[in-house]
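Section 5.1 Outputs to date
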Amino acid sequence: MSVLNGTLFTIKHGATPTAIPLQVDCSISLAQGTREAVTKDGGGARTVLAGVRSASASFSGLLDLTANDLTELTGYMTNGTTVAFEIGAVGGVGSELITITATGILTGLDISGGTEDNVQISGSFELNWPSFTITEA
């Protein structure tokens, strides 16, 4: 069994995917909705069928003004641009590679910082259903 190093799990964006710099956290969430299918044959019991699938991704990190990513990220929101994403990690033993590719829209961007603290940036994306590639070296 191999364990992935979370440090290498990052969100990349753009036509030539580049990682959002200084990421601290990255996640992807997948959901499968359900719909009811109640029939007379079911005797009043609730039955569910697969419904709409959804996916979202989020990140947080330190704000790097020299990387110019803030301009790109706010541009995605201003223009409502659909963005190409690559979310992935390179693992430990055997160098397993996980790549998740999708397109989506930036739906939230937060910038915050306290007194004498690093300025943090976080964002969230609603994704079109992604494709997954898992390869073992």
